[in-house]
């Protein structure tokens, strides 16, 4: 058999492209039914847990040299466009001066069609979701060294929660120094089978990391990362846990009965991200035991 000519090979590519195109158009027929099944009450159509499960499934079946992070970006673009077709939403992103990293991560995650607005301070960015001007805020992942951390604001019954960590499936090029980002929105948290939970703990007195760890270990909770911040009359601590913990989890009550603790709240969670070796690091740093 003779080797196919360049023209013939390109025809094969056109034929594959037609199939991909047809399938994307057909996918909309199904997404419309999904939107209907989710019900009229759904005004915010983004489902980060479903998206994480879909990408994990694809990562499992992925093979060959095509970079999975490129495939994931194509999927994010496609899912985001289908999400926009279900209902409008917009994204507030912290991007200031030369700091465009979060903008690039948000664009990769939420696609090119969703309206995104840059805000010059982290507080302004978060306020957009609190004030219902945007449905999602993209913020820098917490670090121990933050002197004015945004996560202290997440407390309260009506407060939005952390719903997602980015990048989920590796990253291409970003402007500026690579850092992880968290998305905040008003959305009920759901488990994906491989998750992290963020707790906010308020104490009357300052608490060392060892003290905080001891309280958590007694409640059979194992922190991956902790950060603390003084408030006017108390201290608040952010704790990242390596699994999904529901608001009603009885281990949280075990923390609450301790005298020093004023309040414990689940303030977010996210699907564990796919790392190069499919294992993700804690948001920032590892808690020393
Ligand atoms: O599964 C859903 O709930 C959908 O709306 C479908 C879909 C998709 O395109 O696959 C779109 C948006 C969600 O964030 C997750 C998935």
Give a short overview.
This protein has 289 residues and is an alpha+beta fold.
Overview of the molecule:
- The longest helix is centred in the N-terminal third of the chain and has 33 residues, at 6-38.
- This protein has 7 helices and 9 strands, in the order αααβαβαββββαββαβ.
- It is 35% helix and 20% strand.
- The strands form 2 sheets. The protein has a 5-stranded mixed β-sheet, sandwiched between helices. The protein has a 4-stranded antiparallel β-sheet with strand order 7-8-6-9.
- It is elongated.
- The protein has 289 residues and is an alpha+beta fold.
- It folds into 2 domains: 45-188, no CATH class; 196-270, Alpha-Beta Plaits, CATH 3.30.70.
- α4 links the parallel β1 and β2.
- Prephenic acid is lined by residues 31, 34, 38, 45-47, 50-51, 79, 82-83, 86.
- One of its GO terms (molecular function) is chorismate mutase activity.
- It holds the Pfam family CM_2.
